[in-house]
């Protein structure tokens, strides 16, 4: 509520890189979210730090609907599963960025439960899991690759996979044998 809040987040509506620059220039497409510094300090210290001693902070890399979910969660709300399904990766990204661990874990669990790992998407999901430190997703991909190791070895390039991930994969294959 704008009357009792003491901080405001201005979230720039973004949809693509070209539009992002255009919207920054126009500054017309802002969505404002009011919050309370004391709640942020207790429940989302990274968001509180973003505001610092100012009254306003700009968010340019998260869509307003995702930020709305994040702030709602910080205030103790539960995000409906349908919204988690629709916005899982965006919520994981935002929760990871602002260290809102429980929200990240909830979104990750929904993402893993709703995503079919295939030969075509395994490496993308594995790299995403490694980058965002999503253990559940990483385990799901590792299990898939271990169960389908012959086909994976024939059809997937592991050239871009970091060495520590390849080592984890070898353990998963060995465990599966």
Q: Counting H and I runs of at least 4 residues, what is the number of helices?
A: 10
Structural class: mainly alpha
Largest sheet properties:
3 strands, mixed
Task: Tell me the helix content.
Answer: 55-70%
What does this molecule look like?
- This protein is mostly helical and 177 residues long.
- It has 10 helices and 3 strands; from the N terminus they run βαβααβααααααα.
- The protein has helices at residues 17-26, 37-43, 45-51, 64-74, 81-97, 101-114, 122-132, 135-147, 149-155, 163-176; strands spanning 7-12, 30-35, 56-59.
- Helix 7 (122-132) runs antiparallel to helix 8.
Keywords:
3-stranded mixed sheet, 10 helices, 63% helix, mainly alpha, 177 residues
Task: Describe this structure in a few short sentences.
The protein is 63% helix and 9% strand. It has ten helices and three strands, in the order E-H-E-H-H-E-H-H-H-H-H-H-H.
């Amino acid at each position: 509520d704008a009357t009792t809040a003491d901080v405001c987040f201005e979230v720039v509506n973004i949809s693509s890189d070209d539009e992002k620059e255009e919207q920054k220039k126009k500054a017309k497409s802002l969505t404002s979210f009011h919050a309370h510094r004391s709640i942020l300090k207790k429940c989302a210290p990274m968001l509180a730090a973003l505001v610092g001693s100012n009254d306003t902070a700009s968010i340019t890399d998260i869509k307003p609907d995702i930020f709305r979910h994040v702030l709602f969660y910080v205030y103790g709300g539960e995000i409906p599963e349908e919204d988690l399904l629709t916005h899982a990766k965006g919520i994981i990204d935002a929760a990871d960025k602002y260290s809102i661990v429980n929200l990240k874990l909830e979104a990750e669990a929904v993402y893993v439960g709703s995503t079919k790992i295939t030969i075509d998407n395994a490496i993308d999901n594995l790299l995403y899991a490694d980058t965002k430190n999503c253990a559940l997703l990483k385990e799901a991909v590792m299990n898939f690759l271990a169960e389908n190791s012959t086909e994976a070895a024939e059809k997937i390039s592991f050239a871009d996979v970091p060495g520590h991930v390849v080592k984890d994969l070898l353990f998963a294959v060995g465990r599966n044998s």
